[in-house]
Amino acid sequence: MDFQTAKQQDDAYIIHSYQRYPLLLTKGQGATVTDDSGKQYIDFTSGIGVNVFGFCDTQWINAVTAQLGKLQHTSNLYYTQPCIEAAALLCEKSGMKKVFFANSGAEANEGAIKAARKYSFLQYGKGRNTIVALENSFHGRTMAALSATGQEAYHNFFFPFVEGFVFAKANDMDDTLAKLTEDVCAVMLETVQGEGGVFALHPEYIKAVAQACKEKDILLIVDEVQTGIGRTGSFFSYQQFGIQPDLVSCAKGLGGGLPIGAVLFGEKTAEVFAFGDHGSTFGGNPVVCAGAVDILKRLDDLFLQEVQNKGKQCKEAISKMPHVTAVSGLGMMLGISLDMDSKPVIEKLMEHGLLVLSAKTKIRLLPPLCISQQELQAGLQILQDVLESIL
């Protein structure tokens, strides 16, 4: 299938809820991907932070295909080894106690919201169900996750939204404390607001919110859908701030390319859900979990240190490039501010063989965590050349 055929069929059969780039990708290896014409691109997107080990990683493929030859699906009415192994590894690496598997980040956030409200109901009864989220946040496109998203642009068309969410100003502790009224059951935050422009919360703010929640028995929910699974240079980003959340949502990199989400439950919340409170037909699917087990086993301290080193390398190189006014983010989750509109720059980068993302007005980089030095240097050189070519 060539690009024109693909575009015509896409236009005919697929809902236009995505604004696609004019590119038909056909195969990839590592951090390099090829289109239908044979042109190669360095990929600094990893499928929006999903392909932790890049395209077609041999070890991951072997783990997934081995499980496909045993059981592809059973439902959660029965035990399966990959599901149990993935949950154990998540708990071991995070300090959390229990896991619920879903299919996406939005679903994971829905589960965390339900768990927070049930915990508060069991402890305090009705009326203590408000969740404080942050302005500029993004938690997903399902109804509760969308309602928890602190961007007005998303709060349209789909009325009525789920009630019980209020929004505090990020990095403003006075405003956040003022929102922690008697009806609040949880605070929900991203340590780095990815879709909000790769905007990092201040460490002092994160610690102060965690302490205030502890004092008031308000649950702390950390959304690690984009920041988790090694993306920021630690297994979860919250581990860089010396805090322990009560609920954590994750997805994206956890499956390495297959759809998975998870809610992690801390000490307070580990026994909140009872039979029938929550569920998912495909959650904990053995094939997907086999892929997750492979990913989780390989994210050791040495690998995570390399992610930090690569992130620092990128940040230092990009900061010196023309038209760059700031570089934000943690690890290999970076946002580039320019002194010009980023959209035509992103398009020009694609023309020259580098795929990047946007986040509000910024260029967003989410390279595969395993990216080789050769691929990394090639991508940075394209970025340098394109920025230098713009007067």
Topology (elements, then pairings):
Blueprint: H1 3-13, E1 25-29, E2 32-35, E3 40-43, H2 46-49, H3 58-68, H4 81-94, E4 98-102, H5 105-124, E5 130-134, H6 143-147, E6 165-168, H7 173-179, E7 184-189, E8 192-193, E9 199-200, H8 203-216, E10 219-223, E11 247-250, E12 261-265, H9 286-298, H10 301-319, E13 324-330, E14 333-338, H11 342-351, E15 354-355, E16 357-359, E17 362-365, H12 373-389
Gap from first CA to last CA: 38 Å
Task: List segments where confidence is low: pLDDT < 50 over at least 5 consecutive residues.
Answer: none
Number of β-strand runs: 17
Cα gyration radius (Å): 21 Å
Q: What portion of residues belong to β-strands?
A: 15-25%
The helix tally amounts to 12
* Overall pLDDT metric: 98
Major pleated sheet: 7 strands, mixed
Q: Which strand order do you get reading across the main beta sheet?
A: 4-12-11-10-7-5-6
H-E string: HEEEHHHEHEHEHEEEHEEEHHEEHEEEH
How is this structure best described in words?
- The protein has 391 residues and is of the alpha/beta class.
- It is built from twelve helices and 17 strands.
- The chain has a seven-stranded mixed sheet, sandwiched between helices. Strands 1-2-3-15 form a four-stranded mixed sheet. A four-stranded antiparallel sheet has the order 13-14-17-16.
- Helix 3 (58-68) packs antiparallel against helix 9 and helix 4 runs parallel beside helix 9.
- The longest helix is centred in the first third of the chain and has 20 residues, at 105-124.
